[in-house]
Design brief:
Oligomer: single chain
Membrane topology: Multi-pass membrane protein
GO molecular function, one term: siderophore uptake transmembrane transporter activity
Largest sheet: 22 strands, antiparallel, barrel
Distance between the termini: 54 Å
Helix content: under 10%
Low-confidence stretches: 9-19, 103-114
Mean pLDDT: 87
Shape: globular
Main location: membrane
GO cellular component, one term: cell outer membrane
Number of helices: 4
CATH architecture of the largest domain: Beta Barrel
Subcellular location: Cell outer membrane
Structural class: mainly beta
Strand content: over 45%
Radius of gyration: 28 Å
Length: 777
């Protein structure tokens, strides 16, 4: 694979030398109203196969020989631009501002933009925030991760959760990036909401396979979430008032056309609403809150700076005060317990143009996830005072630096190369114990697991190569190295390749291969996104996880490119998976490395179908997944293969939105999934000892040998938009689980008065209507 990459690079350099003398047309594409740069805009020469798309920062570059051309600039949701350009004997800098297409209710002629059929990238889906906001809301709160769960190849965990599982992988095998910064826990409210406020987000992109060389560090997926940049020309705001939360976003120029800002905040108020109903002497509350902020400064056409920040917190606590009867001394005190967790991320990005062909991005990042659980007890009786407390916390903290370069060698070769360094700090389990008696006592901190420092480095190079009008290949190498303070050192060369062949203008076939390494792991006892899951490092005893994935598929454009259909089959193998030993948990009083199995193997394969419509009055998609996912550990299930906890044979999702007029639209989602696997007793047997006494034992099924009932649910959402003097308001009525399906949350074994033992089902959500008010100004 290394030889193929070097050969391709030499051929690309050679073709550049032999090519006819050409010049570069380059520039940025921005939103005409806000000057936000737009990702994925299609630019092509009319009547030819020459074209490109804008990168993550809205930049493009084309090479053209002297002549006169019609350049088309096209992006869904915006009016297309046809620009006549003349190339003589110099490069041309040409920026574009796209205007929003307000006539989107009418069916329009679709221009020959780069559709899915023409892309070399496999297993990738991009969702706009406008699409996500049309999906029916849960308790009035639009959720990005919940939208991701509706895509083929992506499965949700249990009822109501925002965790997601991609192609048989575990939650830790998904790399979630917010403005390029890893987010280690993406859940609020014990997994029922995600940490991403849709009002602050510009773009969402999910890659499930066929990973380009620039991606690394995870086995199953990369979810890229880009924050808005802030309006450079006008002040605007939007927000909403819902049943459990409210949010507000403000953006605008600090220095018009040079510096902008955006600030977005969200908070629930369950604790405030519940306060009047809590008995005197008690305090019970839960809330989550998050804050997104970003500053964007334009130094010149060649230099731009972005500073972004995110802070999120969940806080759950209970406090009970008490007072003894005066007859017994009249002592008083309280018992208090709590659980809190949260993320902090920050990114400083500098875009620089070295030339019309060479674009660079330097990013400094910070990320921290911390959770703690504890209790405190206090009692005072006269002069006697006692206090005791216990806190357990865990954290992962990263400091990183990344440098990416994109070089438009010519229209046949788009090169990317770069390097990244991250310093990780892992504190998997720390206990703080406090005991005082009349002012004297102990206060000690005990590291239950050793603190781990790790240096994580990778470099990569990739080439997007067009071979004539039919073939297009993206190939590259990713080299990673990982060094910890316990002298563990791992390194790996990871080849990546994706190829596309155009059968005709409407049908293409694709294939990909990717080798991936993962050096960080998540230890989890449950599938519901509890914050007690621990992030740990590869060590001398725990090897990195490895996966290899092969995928093949086909994409088709239908009815003048109004519809897209894709089919993909994949096969993935995984090694060095880790999982808690039977009965172990995060509260173990020993080092975590002694509580895990480290020899896990995984196998996942399946077929994914996606039928999608992006334009017109009715938009949405229908997705279907047929999948198998199995695991094997030497000390689990007698060393035999068993179904993964979220192995599901069938998954169906229907997502539709119909716009009746500019004032009314209706959203609908329907999902169906084969039930999750579980382990339970299936019979009993009795053993009698030599003294004649008998003991009854349970005989369990094979590990994950049973299945819950199938899961299915219908959600509806209705929006009524009203234009006002100051902007626009929207009333949203959503119905979650519209036909009140009793879906299983978990099952448990129960014995009735007659001695009969049955498995009972606990369901979480019946039909839940919600109302929210949204506004823009």
């Amino acid at each position: 694979m290394q030889r193929i990459f070097l050969l391709g690079l030499l051929l690309s350099l050679q073709s550049s030398l032999w090519a006819q003398k050409s010049f570069t047309v380059s520039g940025y594409v921005e939103d005409a109203l806000s000057r936000e740069r737009i990702i994925g805009v299609n630019l092509y020469i009319d009547g030819s196969t020459i074209g490109t798309t804008t990168n993550t920062f809205g930049y493009y570059s084309l090479s053209l020989p002297p002549g006169e051309y019609d350049l088309i600039v096209s992006f869904i949701g915006f009016e297309s631009i046809r620009q006549k350009i003349v190339i003589s004997n110099k490069n041309l800098n040409l920026d574009f501002e796209l205007k929003e297409a307000f006539e989107s209710l009418e069916e329009v002629t679709v221009t020959a933009e780069e559709a899915q059929v023409e892309q070399v990238q496999m297993s990738q889906v991009q969702l706009s925030v406008s699409e996500i906001k049309k999906i029916p809301a849960f308790l009035g709160e639009v959720d990005i991760i919940r939208a991701i769960q509706l895509l083929p190849g992506v499965q949700s965990g249990n009822e109501g959760t925002t965790g997601f599982y991609v192609r048989g992988g575990s939650p830790d095998q998904n790399l979630i990036l917010l403005d390029g910064v890893p987010v280690y826990n993406a859940s609020h409210l014990f997994g029922f909401f995600s940490v991403f406020n849709a009002d602050a987000i510009k773009n969402v992109n999910l890659t499930k396979g066929g990973f380009p060389a620039r991606f690394g560090g995870r086995l199953s997926s990369v979810l890229e979430i880009d924050m808005k940049e802030g309006n450079l020309r006008e002040f605007h705001g939007e927000g909403s008032l819902g049943l459990i939360s409210s949010k507000l976003t403000i953006e605008g120029p600090i220095w018009k056309d040079h510096t902008s800002f955006i600030v977005s905040g969200r908070r629930t108020y369950y604790d405030i609403l519940a306060a009047p109903f809590i008995p005197e002497g008690q305090d019970f509350g839960y809330y989550f809150a998050d804050l997104n902020a970003k500053i964007n400064h334009v130094f010149s056409r060649k230099d731009r700076l972005y500073l972004s920040y995110y802070n999120g917190i969940d806080d759950f606590g209970f406090r009970e005060e008490y007072q003894d009867d005066p007859f017994f001394g009249g002592g008083e005190g309280y018992d208090e317990s709590g659980l809190n967790w949260g993320n902090h991320t920050g990114a400083l990005r500098w875009n620089h143009l070295f030339s019309d062909k060479l674009f660079s991005n330097l990013t400094a990042t910070f990320s921290q996830y911390r959770f703690s659980i504890g209790f405190e007890s206090y009692y005072k009786d006269g002069t006697e005072e006692n206090r005791s407390g216990f806190e357990y916390f865990s954290l992962i903290r990263d400091y990183g630096l990344r440098y990416d370069l994109e070089y438009a060698l010519n229209n046949q070769h788009q090169l990317r190369f770069g390097a990244s360094y991250t310093n990780h700090t892992f504190r998997p389990g720390v206990a703080q114990i406090e005991e005082t008696y009349n002012g004297a006592g102990i206060d000690s901190i005990l590291d239950l697991s050793k603190k781990v420092f790790a240096n994580d480095l990778y470099v990569y190079a990739e080439d997007d190569w067009k071979l004539g009008n039919k073939w297009r290949v993206n190939y590259g190498l990713h080299y990673s190295a990982y060094l910890t303070n316990d002298n563990a050192f791992y390194h790996n060369i990871q080849p990546r390749v994706s190829a596309r062949y155009l059968i005709n203008d409407e049908i293409s076939v694709k294939g990909s291969y990717a080798l991936m390494n993962q050096y960080v792991h998540l230890l989890s006892n449950s599938g519901i996104g509890l914050p007690t899951d621990l992030w740990v490092s590869s060590t001398a005893k725990v090897k990195p996880q490895i996966s290899q994935q092969v995928a093949v598929g086909s994409s088709t454009s239908l009815w003048n490119k109004r519809f897209e259909f894709s089919a993909e089959a994949y096969y993935k193998v995984m090694d060095n998976l880790i999982e808690y030993k039977e009965g172990a948990s995060f509260l173990s009083n020993t080092d975590w490395q002694s509580t895990v199995e480290t020899d896990g193997e995984g196998e996942a394969y399946g077929l994914e179908l996606l039928f999608r419509k992006k334009k017109g009055k009715t938009t949405g998609w229908i997705g279907y997944t047929l999948a198998w996912s199995n695991r094997r550990f030497g000390n689990l299930n007698d060393g035999e293969w068993y179904p993964y906890r979220f192995d599901r044979r069938h998954d169906i999702s229907v997502v539709l939105n119909h716009q009746f007029s500019e004032r009314f639209d209706l959203g609908l989602t329907w999902v169906y999934g084969t039930g999750n696997t579980f382990t339970a007793p299936i019979s009993q047997f009795m053993l009698t000892n030599e003294y004649g006494s008998s003991t009854t034992y349970d005989r369990f099924s094979d590990r994950n040998g049973l299945r819950m009932p199938a899961y299915h649910r219908l959600d509806l959402g209705f929006n009524w938009h009203v234009k006002t003097k100051w902007g626009q308001s929207t009333w949203n009525i959503s119905v979650y689980n519209a036909y009140s399906r009793q879906n299983p949350f978990f099952l448990y074994l129960n014995q009735n008065s007659n001695g009969e033992r049955r498995i009972n089902q606990v369901s979480l959500f019946p039909i839940i209507p919600s109302l929210s008010y949204q506004f823009k100004f």
